[in-house]
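ok trying again, last paste got cut off:
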Amino acid sequence: MQLAEIQSALRELSLDGWLFYDHHERDPLAYRVLGFRPARHVTRRWYYFIPAEGEPRGLVHRIEAGMLDALPGPKTVYADWRNQVEGLRALLAGSRAVAMQYSPRNAVPYVGMVDAGTVELVRSLGAEVVTSADLIQMFEARWSAAQLEGCLEAGRRVDEVRRAAFERIRAQHAEGELVTEWTIRNFILDSFTRAGLFTDHGPIVAVNDNASNPHYEPSRDMHRPIRPGDVILLDMWAKLAGEEDSVYYDITWTGYTGAAPPSDVLNVFGIVREARDRGVEFVQRAVRERTDLRGFQVDDVVRGHIVAAGYGEWFPHRTGHSIGREVHGAGANMDNLETHDDRRVIAGTCFSIEPGIYLPRFGIRSEVNVYAGEAEAIVTGEAQQALVIVA
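nice, full thing came through this time. structure:
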């Protein structure tokens, strides 16, 4: 736990403290920020308060009195619900504004880990509850130098698998063999294993109108053949296997299984690519010039290009998501559609920029990952510049 840094951030944000709470391990963010794992299953509620000044303190149930022993500061024990309320009142004594894993109107569900009843309880004790979203970014979403290097290495390996997957489709077509979304999905997963990569689900392998479903995934029972003349979309995400703190690399590339793609496919690809590049350039300029950058602003730039091209109604998802230990992380999302994400894009965080146009006959998406450093923002892998021709 980075206690001194947390307390400094609390003072900077004019907060009296950060209240952590968990029951049945519902808040993984709490354990990661506090830097400990429970020694046993959490069956009773615990609270841990880090004040802006002074020593942290905890509140634990008598049955699980040692739950927070790994953390500094005194611990008060409670047994019945009356003791719990009074113990929490003492824990928060003198505090007016405290952060919790709460998101107003659940605008950022990745941070909204605390139930409404607990928020009501804390407020009834005289404390204002504010969102910990910016604190979470600082102490959970920021990458270490080792995590960045791990992402770059994962990117090299995933990009090689992506090239091999398109080549596999070409080779099987050349041999007159049947190739399907399902067989290519399995080829990618087997290749990930051989390359020392891990993914918790996916990938997406989708042809034609299946590619118009942003979250389509083939299954053993439901999949399509990949035939000459098809649009093919590959969305792949993975991280280095066997490393607890490794972070994801997440890309989407599209191709055409023929020598001469139709003009409408080429046109849509060009619009999506340009929208992606405008978003990347906007971020890079803001980081380079050290100007304030918010997630919704990136979405506005990217979406604005697609709207101007006449395809706004066919772009139904946010421009990008935070990336971390999970493929969808807890940092700022590039979003002014599904939510108005006004969190700052802070140094040391990574996110996707992945515009798409999803028409009834085919879908095109192009996804890159952008890491925002202190002085520059970089794309962490290869960026698709032309439709992959699988001829």
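cool. The radius of gyration is 24 Å. The chain has a mean pLDDT of 96.
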